[in-house]
Specification:
The complex is a heterodimer of chains A (243) and B (246). Chain A has 243 residues and is mainly alpha-helical. In chain A, helix 1 crosses helix 2. Chain B is an alpha/beta fold and 246 residues long. In chain B, strand 1 and strand 2 form a beta hairpin. Chain B starts with a strand and ends in a 19-residue tail after the last helix. Classes of the chains: A mainly alpha (243), B alpha/beta (246).
């Protein structure tokens, strides 16, 4: 059975698309739009990836074309769920949701690998990350606020949309909190006379040529020492002369 | 490379004998960098002086690749020491007006090496120890970190097989300490020199493996001590501490 979670720990769009098509048949472009509208900005999908997924689902027999006569343009194939697609969706729905996949943060990789010399650079990266998260947070909060309040009857779609956005919003808030913590830790570390075990220090402010000269001097000298063995003790006559 | 077997040493004092080393044995291999950590007065310096052949133990044997120091005559021992063993001491009484160049070349000049080739080798050793900018200075002009780098360069100029260092990094800042330890550990790894370092501060022994603890003239190897100063890894991938080579 194909994995529901893609290689980067993200859920593939397959079951979401199946679920949307179960509600009503649609053509490809519509599907992409609906995915975004119903599940939120994290589900924005590029058309290449979308059509690829649709083709694959069609090959697997999960969906089929049900073109109506009035759409004769080639790219306007309308798709609907097949019986085996229904079954696949049901069995996916029954399964427990995997517990949260931990996120791989490129920013953390940069901070960890920056080493003592580039710590200041990673501060800049943290700032940029914080700004990015804050902008995104503002955007999503605005989107959430734009969903109209129900007046007479509760609209389930509005409630669910708010729910989806609030997931992204709390995620961004957590990221902002972490970024602030990262900035504090890195700035603190900058002012410490810290030990960096295992970090190969690039030689202090010296040119690459000087660093190279040091390296080759070290290799030369250390190589000579490595190939030397204990010098044999001189024989007795030498010793007498020396003594 | 270096083998100490059942070494004991006491100092007699007006208030009674003091045990410096008590039936102590250790073996140091080529390419190994062993750290000995202990409070002051625990016998660290006596241990190094005996390992260097500068002091005789009351009992026990010191051998270098099977050569026994105790069986050599005084002049043989001196010669052997000069060629194979290098020492870096924590407090060195240096002639402060001497130039770094003269100070580093001295061991070679004593060994009747020509001045020009001695200076070439001094430059190389200083470069290898990242202290080449000191070559034109006098000893009193050096910072603590430079002083230790110069001392190590001077120790290496005779291309020794064994390096004994008594608190080489103890008076330095953490960053300089680490620089010295990186240098010494690459000396062990690349030059296959056996390195024995002592310090009263375990943090300064950062890259040594194993780190042993000396107390009241006896060596103990407590697991937690040798775990200190190791690179922190996430718990799930942290390797079990490898047992020290026998």
């Amino acid at each position: 059975m194909p994995a529901a979670v893609g290689p980067r720990g993200r859920m593939s769009a397959k079951h979401a698309l199946l679920g949307l098509l179960r509600e009503r048949p649609a053509y490809g472009y519509q599907l992409g739009e609906r995915l975004h509208e119903r599940l939120g900005p994290a589900w924005a999908i590029n058309s290449g990836h979308l059509y690829q997924t649709i083709k694959r689902m069609q090959r697997e027999g999960l969906i089929e074309r049900v073109d109506d006569a009035e759409h004769d343009r080639d790219d306007r194939h309308v798709y609907a769920v097949t019986g085996s697609g229904e079954a696949e969706f049901e069995s996916w729905f029954e399964r427990d949701v995997d517990s949260l996949q931990l996120v791989r943060r490129p920013l953390l990789v940069k901070i960890v690998l920056a080493g003592p010399e580039r710590l200041e650079d990673s501060l800049k990266q943290i700032d940029a990350y914080e700004r990015g998260c804050a902008d995104r947070l503002k955007e999503l909060s605005r989107e959430r606020d734009e969903i109209p309040d129900e007046d007479l009857r509760v609209r389930a779609d509005y409630v669910l949309l708010r729910l989806g956005l609030s997931a992204d919003i709390s995620h961004l808030k957590a990221e902002l909190g972490w970024a602030r913590h990262a900035r504090e830790m890195v700035s603190w570390l900058l002012n410490q006379d810290a030990i960096w075990p295992g970090v190969r220090r690039r030689l202090d402010s010296s040119s690459p040529a000087a660093a190279h000269a040091r390296q080759s001097a070290r290799e030369e000298l250390f190589g000579r020492i490595a190939h030397r063995r204990l010098r044999p003790m001189p024989d007795r006559s030498d010793r007498d002369r020396d003594g | 490379m270096l083998r100490l077997e059942k070494i004991s040493k006491r100092y007699s004092r007006p208030d009674g004998d003091r045990v410096a080393l008590d039936d102590l044995s250790l073996e140091l291999k080529r390419g190994q960098i062993m750290g000995i950590f202990g409070p002051s007065g625990s016998g660290k310096t006596t241990l190094l002086r005996i390992a260097a052949g500068l002091q005789q133990p009351d009992s026990g044997i010191v051998t270098y690749d099977g050569e026994c120091l105790g069986r050599m005559s005084g002049s043989e021992r001196t010669r052997f020491r000069r060629r194979e063993i290098a020492c870096v001491w924590a407090s060195q009484s240096w002639q402060e007006r001497l130039s770094v160049r003269d100070h580093v070349t001295l061991p070679l000049l004593v060994d009747r090496c020509g001045r020009r080739s001695a200076e070439r080798r001094a430059r190389e050793a200083l470069l290898a120890c990242e202290a080449e900018r000191c070559i034109g200075m006098e000893l009193h002009e050096l910072s603590d970190g430079e002083r230790q780098r110069v001392a190590i360069a001077r120790a290496l100029i005779t291309e020794p097989q064994l390096l004994l260092a008594d608190g080489p990094a103890s008076s330095l800042s953490l960053v300089e300490q680490e620089g010295i330890m990186v240098l010494l550990s690459s000396l062990a790894r690349q030059a296959r020199v056996a390195v024995l370092i002592t310090d009263s501060n375990a943090e300064a022994l950062l890259l040594a493996d194993p780190i042993l603890y000396l107390r009241d003239g006896k060596l103990i190897n407590p697991e937690p001590m040798s775990e200190r100063g190791r690179v922190y890894r996430f718990p799930s991938v942290r390797p079990r501490h490898a047992a020290a080579d026998a």
